[in-house]
Amino acid sequence: MTQRIRRLGPPLLLLAPSLVLVGVFVYGLIGANFAKSVTDDHSAATANGVEPTSVVWFQNYTTLLKSEEFQHSLINLVLFTVVFLLGTLVIGFVWAWLLDKPIRGEGFFRSVYLFPMAVSFIASGVVWRWLLNSTQGEGASGLNRLFQMVGLDFLQNNWWNNVTFGILAITIPAIWQLSGYVMALFLAGFRGIPDELREAGRMDGASEWQVYRHVLFPQLTPIMLSALIIIGHMSLKSFDLIMSISKPANYQTKVPAVDMYLAKSSFDYANAAAIGTILLVIVALVIVPYLVKTNRQEK
Amino acid sequence: MATVATPVPAPDVAGRPTDLRPDRGRSRYSTARTLRYVALLAGIVVVLVPVYVLFVTSFKGTGDASPTRAWNLPQVWTMQNWQDAWTALSPALWRTFEVVIPASIISAVLGSMNGFVLSRWGFRGANTVFAIILFGMFIPYQAVMIPLLQIFLDAGIPNGVPSLILLHIIYGIPITTLIFRNYYQTIPHELVEAARVDGAGMLRTYAWVILPISVPSFVVVLIWQFTNAWNDFLFAVFFSNNQNGPITLALNNLANGAMLQNYGVSMAGALFASLPTLLVYILLGKYFVGGLMSGSVKG
User: Could you please report the per-residue DSSP string of A195-249?
Assistant: First the structure.
């Protein structure tokens, strides 16, 4: 027994603060949040305890999921995520591929492509708000003005003010910001492939393209999966960029994270909690299988 | 790239394939290289367009307000926007340092202890414990936000700097643990075993063997946490206000709060808000990329 304590004691001692914090603030609060989401705590009066609350079970969830407003947010989230993923993966991959073989100035290209990662969405949102200004014609500035200047007037559009696809305008800054990250991932992938593999491909008489197509690209599948998971879960949590480019109450660009903020701001804690839980479920559907898979691989 | 199928090059004496088509080969090679440069430079232009806009607009005065001059250089370069932005943002700038510095240091220390225990002082179930901690990295914080606000209120933790320090420590644990664990896994087992044989306990092994070789990963983790906490907006918006909040919140209020949009001031502000993380990126880019990689490629 004492030996057990001596063996397990110190590791537990070092881990304890973190385990307690993560236990309470991640798992405990997820539970507390769920408990809140099944009540009728919808107003300042109930939030402050002036009026009592009661349990309404899944009523908040069904009301939310049936409401046209929230469905719009979910559709926006899907559209945003699909385009964001496609954009960053394609651009990031192409950049990495272009930089794979030795080229002068590689460090410069890498640094510039990656720098937007160091900037906050709030700061980049300031300039993208200007670039994506929806005014067209004479009063146009931003990208619409640029299109006029280069004679591509037909490309002018109202960006994030479009009701159906406005959310896609927000993917442009998102892709701008994270393509460099995906490039860095893929580039690390390319560099991690042993040279012998390329040599072997060339020895077999494969052209450069064939070496890439049949030898190198398949090696990058795990990287692509990582990139999908990372960008995907970032995308599902998108909030900052939308808050800084369009107004939070802006219907066109609403996503669940914004709804949650609006609900909280109007003291509708039950619905805010319910939206939080819905987001968690969506993210967990993506993340848990990934964590289980990587955990298994390491054993 | 070389997409055209090429004849198999004849092997030379040593059995290596050599390019026996000097003229055609060389010209094709350089065409491909030129195309690569063109594509890479096009990427640079696209990435830098927002930077040009930010920079130029931040020096523009009222004389340049016309949308027809949106993309031009300032007629008169003025520092007025920078002065106004500094007046509006400098208190928040210092507060952000107050949040970010202690938060990064403490979460790095916790992550280092966890990483060591989980990777090099193995015990049964270490992988499961790691997965449990890691999950905290992926959750959307919306799913804990409502009870989190309540706990902080009940515990009497003041909004603003104190709340934000605690939050960045708690929710930084998963990623810092991940980075340190991945790093420590590359340390040879013998190092820890040798200390064990010499009779050193776990704490002493950690302090005398592990910590001294952890400097590079401390730099990586500190940079990662610094950047993340600096750029955070979600916790800022729920746990602080314009009077006690960090730079992202102040910038967003500056840019989106006023009825009259003054893009010159908000763009100067966006540059201010980004300077610290950009400086870190420029000066310590290698470690920055290191954080990105270790935070992702391996789960």
Answer: HHHHHHHHHTT--HHHIIIIIIHHHTHHHHHHHHHHHHHHHHT--HHHHHHS-TT
